[in-house]
Design a protein that fits this description.
The protein is α+β, with helices and mostly antiparallel strands. It has helices at 11-14, 18-26, 58-75, 90-95, 97-106, 118-129, and strands at residues 9-10, 34-37, 41-44, 48-49, 83-86, 110-113. Helix content is 45%, strand content 15%.
């Protein structure tokens, strides 16, 4: 779900789905949040974006995969983090597959790769944010 404001707003404000509500309500940690968008690719939470109506699908995931992997490497220095939490749906996981392999190979901290249905992933995210 997205906020339909006509003006450009930060990505973290644009998205208003289940997991974003949990994140906004329970955010107590100093977090670096990246958002994977079907239109814009990988975004910092404060990047201003316009409203769009595009869903991630298999084809879009494959088209964005290399760009997303490259952007992740440009944006994130894994040495600055103790933990990485990844919460993606099926098609988004396809798009982030190369990046997940990279994180698993080179990141020495704790990795939370959320799996399962919405409720399970929501509970895991809430618990992670509150620990």
């Amino acid at each position: 779900m997205k906020i339909k404001s006509k003006r450009k707003i930060p990505a973290i404000e644009r998205y208003d789905g289940y997991f974003f509500k949990i994140l906004k309500k329970n955010r107590t940690k100093n977090l670096g949040v990246l958002i994977l968008s079907a239109k814009y690719g990988l975004l910092n939470e404060d990047e201003k974006i316009s409203y769009y109506d595009k869903k991630m699908n298999h084809d879009t995931a494959k088209q964005l995969e290399n760009q997303v992997s490259k952007k992740f490497l440009e944006k994130v220095n894994l040495e600055e983090y103790e933990e990485v939490c990844i919460n993606l749906g099926r098609c988004y996981t396809e798009c982030f597959a190369k990046t997940i392999k990279y994180i698993k190979r080179y990141f020495s901290g704790r990795i939370f790769l959320m799996k399962g249905g919405l409720g399970n992933r929501g509970n895991i995210l809430k618990n992670w944010l509150n620990t």
